[in-house]
Amino acid sequence: MLGTGLNTATVVIFLELILAVYSAALVVNTDKKALKIVHTILGIVWVVLALMNMFA
After folding, report:
1. ∠55-43-21 over CA atoms, to 5°?
2. How far apart are CA 9 and CA 25, in angstroms?
3. Between vectors from CA 50 to CA 30 and to CA 18, what angle results, nearest 5°?
4. If you ran DSSP here, which 8-state letter would residue 32 be given?
5. How much is the pTM?
6. pLDDT for position 45
7. Cys staple from 46: which of 20, 37, 41, 52, with CB 3.0 to 4.6 Å?
8. Which residues of the chain have pLDDT under 50?
9. Does the CA dihedral 43-47-48-53 come out positive or negative?
10. How far apart are CA 30 and CA 22, in angstroms?
């Protein structure tokens, strides 16, 4: 991705959104309630970080 002319902020935003989707998948596939809470919090953090990178 870096060789295609994209700047590093775009790559970081893309990776953070991938991690947010991965956290959502972990929430769906986890049976324990504590792990669902942890993955939900991490997913929210990834989305907030991606939004901060988009608008900062």
Report:
1. 90
2. 24
3. 45
4. S
5. 0.84
6. 96
7. 20
8. none
9. positive
10. 12
